[in-house]
Amino acid sequence: MGRRIVIIGAGAAGASAAARARRLDPEAEIVMFDKGPFISHAPCGIPYYVGGVVKEAADLAIYSPEEFARERRVDVRINAEVTEIDLRSRTVKVREGNTTNTYQWDKLIIATGAKPITLPVEGSDLKGILTLRLPHEAPVLRAEVERARVVAVVGGGYIGLEMAEALVNLGKKVILFEMMPHVLPTTFDEDMAKLVHDELAKHGVELHLNEKVVGFSGVNGEVRKVITEKGEYEVDKVVMGVGVRPDTDLAVKAGIKLGETRAIWVNEYMETSEPDVYAAGDVAETWNLITGKRMYIALAPPANKMGQVAGANAVKGRFLKFPGVIGTAITKVFDLYVARTGLTERQAREEGFKPVSATIRARTTAHYYPGGVQVSIKMVADEPSGRVLGVQIIGPDKIVAGYIDTAAALIGRGATIDDVFFADLSYSPPTAPVWHPIITAARVLSKGRF
Ligand code: FAD
Prior knowledge:
By secondary structure, the chain is of the alpha/beta class. It has three domains: 4-40 and 59-115 and 245-316, FAD/NAD(P)-binding domain (3-Layer(bba) Sandwich), CATH 3.50.50.60; 118-242, FAD/NAD(P)-binding domain; 336-445, FAD/NAD-linked reductase, C-terminal dimerisation domain (Enolase-like, domain 1), CATH 3.30.390.30. Helix content is 26%, strand content 27%. The chain is built from twelve helices and 25 strands. Strands 3-2-1-7-18 form a five-stranded parallel sheet. β24 and β25 (388-395) form a beta hairpin. The relative contact order is 0.12. Flavin-adenine dinucleotide binds at residues 8-14, 33-36, 43-44, 46-47, 81-82, 111-114, 132-134, 159, 247, 250, 281-282, 298-301, 303.
């Protein structure tokens, strides 16, 4: 038997770490604990399960524990909650059924994910105020909202918007509260977010912007009203979408250092402040490739990659580096695909750049070819250096995903406006106009250079 690698949490990061460690070290003993019944799961699918697009919550788990254990030769323990990490004795305490067992580790990977934030306001502990976290909890969430007529969604971020759509699909009246002047306030500029406002209105979502929720009131312990700075609203259920925070409780108790974002501090090898202890995924801090600053981002693609890096380094030493992120993300809001990468214009200004921006509307096919749609693209660059800092794209076609990924690949490599303009992108009448929309955005941004 080789060294023992213990992994806490079997979501995207934990399962990726286990798979990578096994691939690189056939001898290691790998034990992966999860306090829930699912492993290798996809919380991202919860809104689609609630809205009825995905039929079974179990479909949101990619592998069953048995399959994963067999195929990867990993000792998978479900319904096993790690309650303590002891750094001195190199052990973890695990609650399994009615007993608490102690396991030794040579290398430890913490992949406990993130928790939904709850508002510190009166009434926030009432029943019927619902949060989204893990797929196995989704059937309860769906049963709760199915019984409701009016549902409030608090928060206009990705999860709030995806839930608003799911609830409308279930025939509910939806009231969405966002305390900032526009939805997606931390990821989009206001001019682009307005397109999402129109889409929400088109589908009957009652949108309350600049309206902070200050409390909830209930009857017999069940929520009945949302109280904001501007009024009171009768509702049957409330879905919270005000963000997540890293689930660092175990790490904090063990004395593992947190970073400035309050996620676990890690270096590019996913090493924590403690020898032989790694952290990966939504529980760990990362850094922004554009600003060079530490940041916290809770998204599945970085979680998977950080897990791979942690798993590889747990068995091979300093074998792989995680380079950082630029914050690429996409969501669907009814008939619109809403995508972004890099910095918004506001963020660019706050970070000390001198941003210039161009916003264009472009067709997705040659003008004579049927079936094309119009997409809106905003590109932001730093005027003195010409470096492209960010792109936001919104349009009614999945092609938006391809555009944003193209932009992300370029921006992640430090591309300038010229680099983007001369990127050798593809063309055929059914798939793109001869001037690709991303290139057109760069051309407009170049202010006459091209
Ligand atoms: P998780 O997936 O949260 O896994 C952590 C695991 O640790 C859990 O299984 C948990 O049970 C376990 N655990 C925690 N504490 C313990 C303990 N003490 N003992 C044992 N086990 C423990 N990202 C995107 O990129 N795109 C999307 O569209 C998207 N949509 C989302 C929609 C929703 C509703 C939610 C909630 C998230 C969404 N995300 C999305 C974020 C994405 O799901 C996360 O970034 C990703 O799941 C992080 O993986 P992780 O392994 O770090 O954490």
